[in-house]
From TrEMBL:
Domain Guanylate cyclase span(s) in chain numbering: 342-483
Protein name according to UniProt: Adenylate/guanylate cyclase domain-containing protein
Classification via InterPro entries: A/G_cyclase, Adenylyl/Guanylyl_Cyclase_3/4, Nucleotide_cyclase
Annotated SMART domains: CYCc (SM00044)
Domain of life per record: Bacteria
Length: 536
């Protein structure tokens, strides 16, 4: 049946005016009490509906709206004659007959945004135009009280859903991918013409990275898709861009309303980064609230991301870390696995004598070792190796991990090239005036290093309570023993390395001079070490 047309507003009688005013007060009091008690929608309607039925004289009441999980639900009270009221509320707004009774329906909305549908079922067939108008005014009075409350619930629920989605995205092991998804989700709910994330590098805090978005889509990023204006600002101001207001950045986004949210690791610590958003028309309180929550979540994610990078930076080069963290399942590369790897042990010649006779304090020893070992590790990383650990002044490197994409020949080549580089820079370091004088003082011909290189099967991965990347095998022990046999500025390689290098086509490797095979018995090793002396 077609709903009866809504009658034009008629002049209210004093009696009806008092009734509607009292009804509004009753509904308002019920809703306020429910809000004070922080009740769910279901609890709220259980509280309100019986009282409203009593005051309106209606047979039944029903409301269809979304619950706190943003799932559409219908709540009802009274006698609907065994019919599900939700299906009745899908009809057009107005007054119509239903099973010999009168059904009055009205859409609830705030500022044009629908938040639900409210219906009252009155006993008896629809009356005349004036009776229908009174019923509509009764329903409208209730609607005015309910729609604002429902809008608050819906807004809070939507905000909560957005926050959960952003948190889920930011949990992505690939930080950049999670960030892109979070901004895209945010832009689907609020107008977000411009968004900038500026953040420190975890390993090199003086270096800043950035990602900029246009309407939720990635526009520029440091590295692969650089922004020329941003690159200029970074060059001019560096990490100062993270401090104070966004004045400098505002000039970059000229003519736009800009808000900056600092992402800070703590009240007294250096900021991790900054969010800047811009929009010609500004942002609503709803939008800014979401942006602030995203900033808070992002702060924690950046802290976690930085911890990951700092932990991995103990073993891997920046390139390897980037490649690892671009893989959502990068942990699989770090799990223990048995592979043939290149193994390098490098130890400073005469280090004990240098420490006892050459330095005036432990601090001086530490500074010297720190400089030498940092450059030795750089040599290992430059050839795709992994820094295993440092034992005293001995640096240990592995070649092959963490991806094991190269064959045994490439791994042997990388280990040998790193050994040659370590020999070369150590000799250069020994030529410095203060180091040369130190060597003369302790009776050494110069600064040298003894290196042992092996190619052997080992179990590689993260081990121990500190989750250090290392390897275990008899081949590691052989490399250590081989290094101890090496003399001044001497590199010894196991026979397995020599056999692998025979097939190498690398010009550098083919220029190497290999000494005759030597067998050397060593303590606690069943078979003599079979090795060659290597030189340029």
């Amino acid at each position: 049946m077609t709903p009866a047309p809504i009658a034009p507003p008629a002049e209210l009688s004093l009696e009806e005016y008092r009734f509607l005013r009292q009804l509004g007060r009753v509904a308002d009091d019920l809703l306020e009490e429910s809000l004070r008690e922080r009740e769910t929608l279901a609890q709220c309607f259980r509280r309100c509906f019986p009282v409203l039925l009593s005051h309106t004289g209606a047979r039944a009441i029903a409301l269809t709206t979304r619950d706190e999980e943003l799932v559409e639900q219908t709540w009802s009270e009274g006698d609907w004659g065994g019919v599900f009221p939700g299906s009745l509320l899908t009809g057009a707004a107005g007054v119509r007959a239903h099973e010999g009774h009168t059904l009055v329906i009205q859409t609830l909305d705030v500022a044009g945004s629908p938040v639900g549908t409210l219906g009252l079922l009155f006993a008896g067939a629809p009356g005349d135009a004036e009776a229908r108008a009174r019923q509509l005014r009764t329903l409208d009075t209730l609607a005015e009280e309910l729609d604002t409350v429902l809008m608050l619930v819906h807004t809070a629920s939507e905000k909560h859903q957005v926050i959960l989605q952003c948190n889920e995205h930011l949990a992505n092991p690939v930080f950049e991918a999670g960030m892109d998804q979070a901004v895209r989700t945010l832009a689907q709910r609020v107008r977000l013409p411009g968004f900038l994330l500026l953040y420190r590098d975890a390993v090199q805090p003086h270096v800043l990275h950035y990602r900029t978005y246009r309407h939720g889509q990635l526009e520029y990023e440091s590295g692969e898709q650089p922004s020329a204006p941003l690159e200029t600002l970074l060059h001019q101001h560096g990490t100062r861009l993270l401090h104070g207001d966004a004045g400098v950045l505002k000039r970059l986004f000229d003519g736009r309303t800009t808000e900056a949210v600092l992402i800070s690791a703590g009240a007294r610590s250096e900021p991790l980064g900054k969010i800047v958003v811009w929009n010609n028309e500004g942002f609503s309180a709803y939008a800014m609230d979401l942006i602030r929550v995203l900033a808070s979540t992002l702060s924690q994610r950046l802290l976690d991301y930085n911890r990951e990078r700092i932990h991995l930076s103990q073993f891997f080069s920046t390139e390897a870390i980037n490649a690892l963290l671009e893989d959502p399942d990068y942990a699989r590369h770090l799990r223990a696995q048995e592979q043939e790897v290149g193994i390098l042990f490098a130890d400073i010649n005469g280090f004990t004598r240098i420490c006892e006779q050459g330095f005036d304090s432990p601090r001086s020893i530490a500074r010297f070792v720190d400089e030498w070992s940092a450059r030795a590790v750089d040599c290992i990383w430059a050839h795709g190796g992994v820094f295993d650990k440092m034992v005293g002044d001995c640096v240990i490197g592995l070649f092959g991990p963490p991806f094991f994409q190269t064959d045994r020949v490439r791994r042997a080549e990388a280990a040998v090239r790193a050994a040659c580089d370590i020999q070369a820079f150590t000799a250069e370091l020994g030529a410095r005036e203060e180091v040369s004088a130190l060597c003369q003082r302790v009776g050494l011909p110069g600064l040298g290093v003894a290196v042992g290189v092996n190619l052997a099967t080992a179990n590689c991965g993260l081990f121990g309570p500190n989750r250090n990347y290392t390897a275990f095998s008899s081949g590691m022990n052989q490399a250590a023993r081989l290094q101890s046999l090496a003399g001044f500025r001497e590199t010894l390689v196991m026979q397995s390395v020599h056999e692998a290098l025979k097939t190498s086509q690398e010009p550098f490797v083919r220029k190497l001079q290999v000494g005759p095979l030597t067998e050397t018995p060593v303590k606690n090793v069943a078979q003599p070490l079979r090795h060659h002396r290597l030189s340029l």
